[in-house]
């Protein structure tokens, strides 16, 4: 049957320089094999399928697939799916607030004058990385262990290890080898730079490529670590995807209660139907 389809440019600082997302709306009735096959065909980092919610508190349910597997949560699919659902006429239960149901549970998304932002989900693993693993991370990144300022588990579902380098320049210079770990690296720009941090994400979940252009889940967990450790103060702006020729822009803010919000632009570039 024909289903509504959107291809959304998420976290884009300029047209076609964000992270593309395929969204299938009205996906009820599709099974996991059909979803996985379609996600493999789109060959984007993620494809989402929007369904009726199974939780009374949620506005909709989303399932998130890479070309090779299903994910419980991911950031740019959260913003892109919400954008597509609203654009297709979705009506949230509460004005200005959308609740998404996904494999990781319920995720709150707010909508205001600056756009969409999701509340960073709780970390499922947080704490120091042991030294043997730290040395392994340095080896994957092909840098010296002494070039790492600090590293920490900052896992909100995908499995991120957060790595802080001395500078944005050092982040841009990294040329990693293949990875079997989910590694996010960040480095600060000097005052007056184009952003507060340059961020890169390396994950084996993407299949053909190990680097993700712009990553909401990583920026959510990174922000929780950087803010709690006193290395960053919200609000701040992140750049990501520079090495890949992208211009990703991620806005980090925080509420008075300490909730970290991850926001960015989401713009539909392709709209139509697909037969699934």
Description:
The protein has helices at residues 32-42, 75-87, 131-141, 168-173, 216-228, and strands at residues 2-10, 19-24, 47-51, 60-65, 70-71, 97-102, 105-112, 115-119, 125-128, 148-155, 160-165, 182-188, 197-202, 211-212, 236-240, 248-254, 260-264, 266-275. It is of the alpha+beta class and 276 residues long. The protein has 2 domains: 2-120 and 263-275, Diaminopimelate Epimerase, Chain A, domain 1 (Roll), CATH 3.10.310; 125-256, Diaminopimelate Epimerase, Chain A, domain 1. It starts with a strand and ends with a strand. The mean pLDDT is 95.
Q: How does CATH name the architecture of the largest domain?
A: Roll
Mean pLDDT: 95
Ends apart, CA distance between termini: 5 Å
Strand residue percentage: 35-45%
CATH superfamily of the largest domain: Diaminopimelate Epimerase, Chain A, domain 1
Total number of domains = 2
SSE pattern: EEHEEEHEEEEHEEHEEEHEEEE
Q: What are the segments in which pLDDT stays under 50 over at least 5 consecutive residues?
A: none
Q: Based on helices, strands and strand pairing, what is the structural class?
A: alpha+beta
Shape: globular
**Can you count the beta strands?**
18
Q: Describe the largest sheet.
A: 18 strands, mixed
Q: Write down the CATH topology of the largest domain.
A: Diaminopimelate Epimerase, Chain A, domain 1
Helical residues, percent:
10-25%
Rg, Å, rounded: 18 Å
What is the level 1 CATH name of the largest domain?
Answer: Alpha Beta
How many H/I helices? 5
């Amino acid at each position: 049957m024909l289903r509504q389809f959107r291809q959304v440019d998420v976290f884009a600082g300029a047209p076609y320089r964000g992270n593309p997302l395929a969204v299938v709306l009205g996906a009820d009735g599709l099974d996991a094999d059909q979803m996985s096959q379609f996600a493999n065909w789109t060959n984007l980092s993620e494809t989402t399928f929007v369904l009726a919610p199974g939780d009374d508190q949620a506005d909709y349910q989303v399932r998130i697939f890479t070309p090779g597997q299903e994910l419980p949560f991911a950031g740019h699919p959260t913003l892109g799916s919400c954008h597509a659902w609203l654009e297709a006429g979705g009506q949230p239960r509460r004005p200005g607030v959308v609740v998404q149901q996904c494999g990781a549970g319920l995720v709150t998304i707010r909508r205001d004058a600056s756009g969409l932002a999701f509340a960073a989900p709780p970390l499922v693993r947080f704490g120091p990385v042991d030294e043997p693993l730290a040395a392994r991370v340095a080896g994957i990144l092909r840098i010296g262990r002494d070039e790492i300022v600090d590293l920490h588990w900052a896992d909100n579902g995908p499995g991120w290890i957060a790595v802080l380098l001395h500078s944005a320049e050092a982040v841009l210079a990294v040329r990693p080898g293949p990875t079997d770990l989910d590694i996010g690296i960040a480095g600060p720009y000097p005052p007056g730079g184009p952003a507060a941090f340059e961020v890169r994400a390396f994950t084996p979940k993407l299949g053909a490529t190990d680097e993700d252009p712009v990553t909401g889940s990583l920026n959510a967990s990174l922000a929780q670590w950087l803010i709690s450790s006193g290395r960053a103060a919200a609000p701040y702006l992140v750049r990501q995807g520079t090495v890949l020729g992208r211009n990703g822009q991620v806005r980090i803010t925080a509420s008075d209660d300490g909730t970290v919000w991850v926001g960015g632009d989401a713009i539909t570039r392709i709209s139509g139907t697909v037969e699934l």
